[in-house]
Amino acid sequence: MAFEGLSEKLQGVFKKLKGKAVLTEADINEAMREVKLALLEADVNFKVVKDFVAIVKEKSLGEEVLSSLTPAQQVIKIVNDELVTLMGGSSSKLTYSPKGFTVLLMVGLQGTGKTTTCAKLAAYLKKNGKNPMLAACDVYRPAAIDQLEIVGNSVGVPVFTMRDCMEPEKIAEAACKEAEYKGYNVLIIDTAGRLQIDESLMEELVRIKKVTKPHEILLVVDAMTGQDAVNAAEGFNDKLGIDGIIMTKLDGDTRGGAALSVKSVTGKPIKFVGVGEKLDALEAFHPERMASRILGMGDMMSLIEKAQESYDDEKAAELEKKMRKNEFTLEDFLDQIAQIKGMGGLGKLLDMLPGAATKGVKDIDLEKGEKEFVHMEAIIQSMTKQERKDPSILNASRRKRIAAGSGVQVSQINQLIKKYEDAKKMMKQFNMAPKFKKNKMFRGL
Description:
With 445 residues, the protein is an alpha/beta fold. It has three domains: 83 residues, SRP54, nucleotide-binding domain (Four Helix Bundle (Hemerythrin (Met), subunit A), Up-down Bundle), CATH 1.20.120; 196 residues, P-loop containing nucleotide triphosphate hydrolases (Rossmann fold); 141 residues, Orthogonal Bundle (434 Repressor (Amino-terminal Domain)). It has 22 helices and eight strands. An eight-stranded mixed sheet has the order 3-2-4-1-5-6-7-8, sandwiched between helices. Helix 10 links the parallel strand 5 and strand 6.
């Protein structure tokens, strides 16, 4: 999970502080030394760490903190506020042309996931009411155009290509005219990358910038490359001028140094983060929510948003009726599993819950839970409609047949039926509670 190592270390520091009724200057100094080491181990830029610790220390030694009834909480609040500031202060949204047609120029080094991110961004914009088009301007990398067409088709977004042209700026210029003529309101331009920043790359991007006049230039960087990502951001900004950063593979970066350094070093905000391989795994970056996750306080706003995204009014109303009549079936149980998977799976959900709720949960436990979901789905899908509707008819021979069809042991089928019965009882209790009947968000959960 993102920031896992840093989060554990910082929570350890604050646990020590909470155990003290009164904080002394020596306590603050020791805590800041540990915070400094934790940030450096997370691969945060040294100057950024130095400035961050100095600010936190100065504010923590203030009279109002040391004389407070809860000084440890005050220090945690200061660290939280400074982490938010470090990552940009507030969410930085895309800007759109007031004329109605917006050009987004995507740039970056090779291997950052730029082409896939173009499609992810198109899917995100489409979901938020925009009508995007993609333009393939990487004429060097083998199959780059094919890749963009494949991912573009996967998200239902058209891709402009000129396969016989080897001049990216001409392709980009033609794409702008084509997109505007056909009524698309956002054009996302995929460009070539290099293994490192060089003059020919920058000259090409400058030419594309000149003919397309993009409203935003977005740099795609790989979070897992740490300070190399920060250096790349600084280089692109100096030579080309960028407006924002999209950080890919943040879900796989347990350190998080790039995300904590890049705004301070370049002055440019992170606008989106990639949190998975699927084409819908792109999220707007919220500094305040990320700071909360790092400090183990969870991210309930993102959790609620995920629940609302996967929430289906029609299915929820139908499920509520079944609950009232005590008709919750294995088909409905299967729908609930699909809904959890639609919210990103167990790992994503736990990442958004407060640290206390997830304490002790290891990767191996998450993997086991995800596999169990897969087995549950296979078992239910191996049943007949009648068996899903009425599990009471599942005698020994039926269970043996289902086990063979789903590739599991009969004991796993028995465990599933028990979980289903427990869920059915829980649903009945929720249905009886007025607050759950009134709150539509919980109907489908």
